[in-house]
Task: structure prediction
Amino acid sequence: MTVQTVTATINGQTYTLTLNGSTGKYEATVTAPTKTSFNESGGYFAVTVTATDTAGNSTTQDATNTANRLVVKEKVPPVISALSPAANARMTTAAPTITGTIKDETNGSGINLSSFSLKIDGTAVSNANITFTPVTGGYNFSYTASGLAQGNHTYTVNVSDNDGNAATQQSVTFVVDTVAPTLNVTAPVNALVINQTNLTVTGTTSDATSNPTTVTIAVNGADQGAVTVSSGAFSKAVTLTAGTNTIVVKARDSAGLETTVTRTVTLDTVAPTISGLTITPNPVDTGATFIISVSVTD
Ligand SMILES: [Ca+2]
Ligand SMILES: [Ca+2]
Result:
């Protein structure tokens, strides 16, 4: 008999195959579905071919035949986003938590978790130690590092989708700084007693990891305004009030860690008073002793 029609149905679309005279085969050039087959049952689109002869007999071959399975891959890579710590962030813990989001596009093949890679300073973290929380289109991930040394650290994140598209690798360098700055207040010494209203507070500060440091000075709770720190040295003139003055000097590194030094300075501008002086006896015999007695208050 004579073949009348040959059709192929793929993803709900039916195509007519035409006879290629040179090969003797029925052929069609078909545009692939616009979505991945990854999410289809079995991971493929069934290609159902039906041949009908002029007598009306027809035969159908479906995807139980493995050759009738069309695999379609999407080409859009997943995206790594919302990474923390951010670039140049200063973490005041040696055990920062690294978090981020990995998502594939809507109707994409989805994140292939087994492809996920987190490296810290080039050392891979076992995925078994990473928490993955499903979100639409992918996952949030979270890993708490431990024992990181002071200074720079770089983590890199890689992931692919189920169709093998690799995300653009993300690499972030941050800083661990758990050490407060040094602060040496060279003047005044503690418990200084002076009779000058003006006092210069001087000192030095430094930080091994997060220079520059900033310095603030408060006298009796009143901030004294900007303090210039040059090569770690600072000097600030302040005005004392009579009596006890509490001077609080704070050094703060760029990670936000603070060191505080408190000095107590007493301002006394009032001279002592002398009263009630007596000389006994007076007059006194030559060569004899006498006693001077005086009241002095301050
Ligand atoms: Ca994709
Ligand atoms: Ca520091």
